[in-house]
Fold Beta-glucosidase.
Amino acid sequence: MTEPFPAFPPDFLWGVASAAYQVEGAVDEDGRGRSVWDTFCAEPGRVEGGDTGAVAADHYHRFPEDVALLRDLGVGAYRFSIAWPRVVPDGAGAVNPAGLDFYDRLVDELCAAGIAPAATLFHWDTPQALEDAGGWLSRDTAARFAEYAAVVGDRLHDRVRMWMPLNEPVVVTMFGYALGQHAPGRELGFEALPTAHHQLLGHGLAVQALRAAGCSNIGIASNHSPVWAASDAEEDVSAADAYSTLVNWLFADPVLRGRYPAPELAALMPGPVVEDLKVISTPLDWFGINYYQPALVGAATEGSTPVVEGAMLPPGLPFEPRPIEGYPRTDFGWPVVPDGLRETVAMFTDRYGEALPPLYITESGCSYHDPDPVDGRVPDPDRVAYHDGHLRALARAVADGADVRGYFAWAATDNFEWAAGYRERFGLVHVDYATQTRTPKDSYHWYRDVIGRAR
């Protein structure tokens, strides 16, 4: 017999999330500038099937329909991202009024539907003009990001209820600059580390700019997960610790502690690091965790070619990711480990203690290759099971005393899944890309019932 669904605090925030390049489309309309993802998608072989985000889910034109679906879903908040090149086409200088007007309309539509707008300022779509000038390898990009944040904050401060300047800086650093699997497609290995520092510096500067513009309730959406050692052997435990330092604490310690997790890492960062860390650690109102899967890591083995998400790691590393066995997998190949979410929350509360602000789960979700709709229905029992399991695990974390205040399911609709193109479907709502018809999946109706019972 299935245990009753757990209760969450009465003020728990139920949300869904999306990202601009993944849903908006309209890449050549109304003065939008070119982004690194436009360039990356145009390079043959970069994206599965040659797909691009040029049309995506056409959210730019269809947002009233999408907001109506969110209203019927009953969510309290919608986490969306603002496209930097839509607002500041060259990343610096002239502002595009039409871009700001679009987000004005979207925010007004959300407010009218009783949904709190939760805005991310950077979900990986760096303006191409800034990338041409060095991108996140350049300290100047952090300053330009703060200017952009000030523009958006000045326009939307009175209606946006949650702000997060950055989404998953670890992914931009690792897959965009170190391994080349994402835009801008650089393969710099450890020479990509300055991009981590400059993103975090840009985040701190943007937090300050948003506060100066009258914005409140500011956090971050950062990807984190447990790192399990492949065995109890000392070399495997050390390897797992090293990996966790790079993918977890390199991106959380500077924000929450004002320092890097190891002096060796701090020594590799550019600029006046000590002074920069004072900016990076500008206090937040909350901290957002994006969780998808744990990592299993052991010591490097001779002659191996370790990979992460299909990307080959540079040689000479002291660690080696290993496949996680014994769990079901999504159609994207990710292991489904709900208790990893509880474990992630626990490792944050243990590490930071009273210095940890309230937490939100700003993303969690799964891709399954759903069937096409039949008679207006899309059965997706594995997605229902995924969110059910993860919410039960999160409830255990809350029962253990963690201050977790909300959960954003990824994603609101099916969308462009970066280098994987359109094959992967994460949405609660099915999108027929040929017609742009939206069909709520069974998971949508399940989540609506969960939210309804919680009220």
The mean pLDDT is 97.
